# Entry
Amino acid sequence: MIDAATALDRCARLIEAARRHGADAADAAARAQSSESVGVRLGKLEDVARSESEGIALRVFVGRRSASIETSDYTPAALDDLAERAVAMARAAPEDPYAGLAAEECLDRGAAPALDLEDAVGPDPACLRRRAEAAEDAARATTGVTNSEGASASFGRSLFALATSHGFARAYGATHHAIGAAAIGGSGAGMQRDYAQRSARHLADLPAPEEIGRLAGERAVARLDPQIPRGGRMPVVFDPRVGASLIGHLIGAMAGPAIASRSSFLLGREGTAIFPETIDLIEDPHRPRGLRSRPFDGEGVGCAPRKLIDRGVLGGWLLNVASANKLGLRPTGHASRGAGAPGVSASNLHIPAGEPSRAELIGDIREGVLVTELAGQGVNAVTGDYSRGASGFRVVDGEIAGPIAEFTVAGNLLAMFATLRAADDLEMHRSVNVPTLRVEGMTVAGT
# Structure
């Protein structure tokens, strides 16, 4: 895989070519990735995969007209041709009064934070196979597990480099380790499946493969003989591995493009309380070894830790340059970069732990549900209406009872956020980390 110096040199050459062909301004973003994975099933090797990819995206501006184009051909002639075609495309594009590069005063010119995103040594395929085998062996050894969907282990490296025509040029790399296993309990029509998976920048931050496999087996067995719950309005408790999805819906509604197009259920609510005052939502792009850590965003704007929700109050929007210009605001360091125009994304997020334990959080629920898996995409980004297929467990008289499946949970995100309560069981190993969350008065219906 290429190094940072090579990636930045390619970006610089592409920008130089774009300027030579008539671009007023340009930026170039280069990405490189390599990964390898090994999968096993029932003790036998199932697949070995390795992939490598490189690409560079050029964005050019001719006045207020812009165009984006991408290539993986780095010969001088190909880069020159790409730049010439991009400029021609921009001249034919409609004017956009909000298009442009980030202002120089917004660019990240400081010293790079110590993010520690790269593990020094990567495993070979034999090591990955041993990890996958250990995870599957532990899952299959769990009492009640009758079959396996397999286990896998993987390792990858990535590099992102960004350069602009007004002098920004930075790059950073990262590594990624992962182990996962999926187990099956029961037999025939009564079979149930569940999984466990962990990812980390450094191998030292991963649990042992045996722990991951054992958790997959225990989760599968716990789901055996599910019932369909009684319907009605009741408290719904979200396990941490699904509760993060609620934050995903919030972030989507906070994104500048959604606000600028007036397609967000949060319109007009900046500076107002949408959660109880016990709830904060913290973003930290500089978290060492974080899965979404980054020193700068996809347009070179500096990133910084901040509270997106402070004592229940919504602070503002997540803005790239275009959406900031449309709204008359400054970019917030949330631009994400692909082949086309920049989008918006957040970095590492978490809701801090609350005071009650998980047992205390559910202790006064006479009839409710604990959701451990969600399905479907029934969320309206404009109205906030929410309806998802689910499975999990009944909560009866303050205790977790038997497994349940084939039901839906429904409500409105604003009403759900307004009653949100958090337990004290926060763990910080995902890109979005939340403790167990409780929401009042949702509609539960069997399907």
